[in-house]
Design brief:
The chain is α+β, with helices and mostly antiparallel strands and 216 residues long. The chain has two domains: 81 residues, Glutaredoxin, CATH 3.40.30; 115 residues, Up-down Bundle (Glutathione S-transferase Yfyf (Class Pi), Chain A, domain 2), CATH 1.20.1050.10. The protein is built from nine helices and four strands. The chain has a four-stranded mixed beta sheet with strand order 2-1-3-4, covered by helices on one side. Helix 1 links the parallel strand 1 and strand 2. The protein is globular, with a radius of gyration of 17 Å. It starts with a strand and ends in a 10-residue tail after the last helix. Bound molecules: glutathione (GSH). Glutathione (GSH) binds next to helix 1, helix 3 and helix 5.
Length: 216
């Protein structure tokens, strides 16, 4: 039994959906509604599974995991037929470097709990919160664009001509950037790679608008 607890527009869950799709692994979708006021991630029943109260959470047979980076690395080792990380050590480090830029330096600053804290405890209004959101994406994307521009290893995708873990991180962050009105035209390499990814079935199937919990 393989079950993914997620939310249609959680970018961390989106990453795992892409990886499962690229590896051809079927799974059952378990929707956890993060919408403020509903907040199913805070329910005792869900926290009994994942005490952090966040998505994604993957159950794969006897294995239960939170944290998308851990889930992605686990999937890559457990199901190595389609690899998301290169076999060469230095290339692998490059893919992890690009991935971490999104996972560690962009996404955590813009997570729902952080935005809720900014608005609630610190009294930021919608304009200030949006400015915060877009600032951290634009700053991170500028660095990512520069890294990709500087390397001959950048290809059709972030690393070469097949999708890697770095693309799995990039595409959901691009989706979020567009949702919040970040000027993505400032990042032509990211846009080109995103377009190439979104032509692939696994990326398309994982998109928020194609999830069972996407509001109709
Ligand atoms: N580092 C975690 C981040 C998980 C995370 O923050 N998920 C968000 C959705 S993208 C969430 O569940 N937020 C709920 C909340 O903040 O209450 C991962 O990559 O899995």
């Amino acid at each position: 039994m393989r079950k993914l607890f997620g939310y249609f527009r959680s970018s961390a869950a989106f990453r795992v959906r892409i990886a499962l799709g690229l590896k051809g692994l079927a799974y059952e979708h378990a929707g956890i509604n993060l919408k403020p006021g509903i907040s199913e991630q805070k329910a005792d029943s869900y926290k009994a599974l994942n005490p952090q109260g966040r998505v994604p959470f993957l159950v794969d047979g006897d294995v239960s995991l939170s944290q998308s980076p851990a889930i992605l690395e686990y999937l890559d080792e457990a199901y190595p037929e389609v690899k998301l990380l290169p076999t060469d050590m230095v290339e692998r480090a490059r893919v992890r470097q690009l991935s971490a830029l999104v996972a560690c330096d962009i996404h955590p600053l813009n997570n729902l709990s952080v935005l809720t804290y900014l608005k609630g405890e610190l009294g930021a209004d919608d304009t200030a919160t949006n400015t915060w959101y877009c600032h951290w994406i634009a700053e991170g994307f500028a660095a990512l664009e520069a890294l990709l521009a500087a390397s001959g290893q950048t290809g059709k995708f972030c690393h070469g001509d097949t999708p890697s873990m770095a693309d799995v991180y990039l595409v959901p962050q691009m989706w979020n950037a567009r949702r919040f009105g970040v000027e993505v035209n400032d990042f032509p390499i990211l846009q080109r790679i995103d377009k190439n990814c979104c032509a692939i079935e696994a990326f398309k199937a994982a998109a928020p608008e194609n999830q069972p919990d996407f509001p109709q």
